[in-house]
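From the pipeline queue, job 12 of 40. The input is one protein chain; the requested action is below.

Action: predict structure.
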Amino acid sequence: MIPFLDLKKINAQYAEQLKETAIRVIDSGWYLFGKETENFEKKLADYIGAEPSQTIAVGNGLDALRLILRGYVELGEIQENDEIIVPANTYIATIIAISDNRLTPILVEPNIETYNIDIDKIEEKITEKTKAILLVHLYGQAIWSEKLEQLAKKYNLKIIEDNAQAIGASWNGIRTGNLGDSAGFSFYPAKNLGALGDSGAIITKNPELAKAIRALGNYGSERKNLNAFRGVNSRMDEIQAAFLSVKLDYVDVESAVLQNIAEYYCENITNPKIILPNYKAVMSSEVKRSRDIPLKQGDSSTTLGMTISHVWHIFVIRCKQRDELQKHLEKHNIQTQIHYPIPPHKQACYADTPLAKLHLPITEQIHREVLSLPISPVMTQKEIEAVVDAVNSF
């Protein structure tokens, strides 16, 4: 079976470094709020182009978005029942972050070509209660435009990035996660920068918001036993911070490998029943690497000098006979996944809300038709060709 994603094999590339790192953390006797977390926050900030003091490691990606919105509420910039514009075609965590803060998600249909929010449809959804646009860089593709910036300025809106799937992506040379006012990151193990457990981070351009978020994620406490807010417990532990510091060195190298696989799929999948991604991924030709060249310690965006706009977290195709295609590929020993089978407004947890009454034909079509093919930095050429042959034979 060709696995959808072989995490064991991915992490085996760095096994010795990770083991040495684990021993160092264990022997330190310090497991929260230590040098490893501080080092990772600085390293992530440097990679994204942000301020280390405004980069906050948290427990997971959902908490990152929750805490950003909660921070704005605590600062008085957003009020209960205010509206947050969000793409309808996203993982449900993006919507949960809004509703958990007693804010109102306003769903906007995606562009059928990119699956990201259709920026041309945002303005018609803006009301006097709208306070922010929560973007999702879905599947690893950056979504941004000058029109978006103008809308935010015209209506005095915050732009929050859900950057859970797009670390390393960029728009006009600026990394996602540093385009808007604030951004949430997920380091769930399957992400392009994956921990060996749950972890997340927040980056913001607002130092007051950063200060509030640091307290909110630590029971609302800026100093021990002094609680300014009714906070939560959302803290990255030292061992995950240390692991992520190791793996961050390889993110751009792995993105280049994924780029090559995606290009191979796009050039060789010719079945007319299949709708391929329509992404305009950019990478300097001189830094493309062969899939047969193993990653080496020290390879990084600095040593390779690469520029990548789309990082191919997931390679998503569409097919009207999606379920039959998935069964066909399974018979050919190819594991696939569906991202995502049920759109948020159709989920049972929102059945008693206005979301359940929405009819979003583009979103619903996407969720009926999408299928994610295997794509990972440890796939062999033989496996990649097998996926292409199986898809073409459907």
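Job complete. DSSP finds 13 helices and 13 strands in the chain.
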